[in-house]
Structure formats: structure tokens, C-alpha cells
Amino acid sequence: MDLGLSGRRAAVAAASNGLGFAAARALLAEGARVAICGRDRDRLDAAAAKLGGDVHPIVADVGTPEGATAFVQASQDALGGVDVLVTNAGGPPPGTFASTPVDAYGSALDLNLMSVVAMCKAAVPAMQERGWGRVVAITSVTVRQPNPALILSNTARAGATGFLKTLALEVARDGVTVNSLLPGSHATDRLRQVRGGDLEQVAAAIPAGRVGDPADFGALVAFLASDQAKFVTGSALAVDGGEHGGLL
């Protein structure tokens, strides 16, 4: 299936590894031109070399609204515009209500909410003017099923989901779609670090019986960025092997 992405210009945040890297790889495989960002120049250049193709590495920290805006602007300069925006960022520190001080919330909101707002502010108006655009946000399945030990992430990413849904309603008539993917446990370096390299215990708790393949996740990003997905907007799709137990 031709996804209609050949020549499209994509900016993928936090893509030096993990699910952002998988998203960039999938878009490149469909013929898109891709800008990626990360905070560490060496890791970013290594990721770009591994990806190959028409990829543009940009050092940027999307953990602040200013850094997020700067990444999109640099992507627009490098690519001549941005047709596809993939928002992504790491997670804030773990913690519960009791253990998390009030002043920790500000940086978490910057990382997982305000960075999304800033990237969309920088990219979406030009998409509206062209009459075509795609925003695909990588959030977390904890938006639907909060993790008791991740109160900062739960709070910030839920806010981002509300923002994205509202934005989708506003720009739908302009040919711009806005969707989010809610990943569960995937075989990333981050998950291996947290679990000491052993993912069997994680897989045992997932109805599918395995952790997710980042390449499969990347393929979903590419589909939501495609021409075929033009009637899909405002969705928040769990990608978790059935781990989330709710009806909605």
C-alpha cells in the first residue's frame, strides 16, 4: 500500500532512540524527508547514521516550550516546511501524590504537555494554510489507565490528550488531522533498563503474551500520517497488546 508520504516533510521529536526512532524509520521507509531531534549530539548523529536516507539531525531539548518551538522551526528551515509532526518526549520522574512536591509539577507539565502545545503552535498554522497536515502525538496508555507510581506523567499526558482532541476539532476542516498513540510496554532500551534487561515478566502481564515491537509502533505512526488516514482525527489509540482493561 502506498501511504502517499513520498516527499512529505516530517519532524519527529525525541527520535535518537526508542519509539521516536521507530517512527522516524517508518516515515523514511515511506519516502518522507525527516528531521529528528535529541539532546546529545553524539547519540543523535549515531541515530541519523543508522537511519540513513533523507534525515536531518537537530540538537534540541523539547522538555521546554522554547526548546520544542526551536525544534519545529529548525525542522522547517531544514526541510522547507513540516507536513507531519510527531510529538514525543521522555517521561518525568516517578512518584505518588504523597511523595511528589507541588513544585515538581511545573517541569513535568512543560515536558509532556506544554512541549506538545508549543510544537503544534509552531507547525499547525502552516499546515492549515496548505490544506494538509498530520499531527501524531506519542503519549502513554496511562492516559487511560493511570499508573499509581507515575502521577506526574499521568497528569501531564492526560492534559496533552485533552489539548490534542480540542485541536483536532478546530483544524479538521482545514485538512489537518490530529491523533495520539498511547503505547504500552515496548521493547525499547528504556524498558530494558527499568527491568534489568529481562522482559519476560513484563510480557507475562500482557494479554498478547509479548511486549510490543517498536517497528510495529512506527508503522502505526506512518499510517496515521498517510493519505489513507485522512478521515481519522481526534483519536487516542492504545497500542498495548490488550494491557489496558477498560472498555474505552
Automatic annotation (TrEMBL):
<dbReference type="Pfam" id="PF13561">
    <property type="entry name" value="adh_short_C2"/>
</dbReference>
<dbReference type="InterPro" id="IPR050259">
    <property type="entry name" value="SDR"/>
</dbReference>
<dbReference type="InterPro" id="IPR002347">
    <property type="entry name" value="SDR_fam"/>
</dbReference>
<protein>
    <submittedName>
        <fullName>SDR family oxidoreductase</fullName>
    </submittedName>
</protein>
<comment type="similarity">
    <text>Belongs to the short-chain dehydrogenases/reductases (SDR) family.</text>
</comment>
<dbReference type="InterPro" id="IPR036291">
    <property type="entry name" value="NAD(P)-bd_dom_sf"/>
</dbReference>
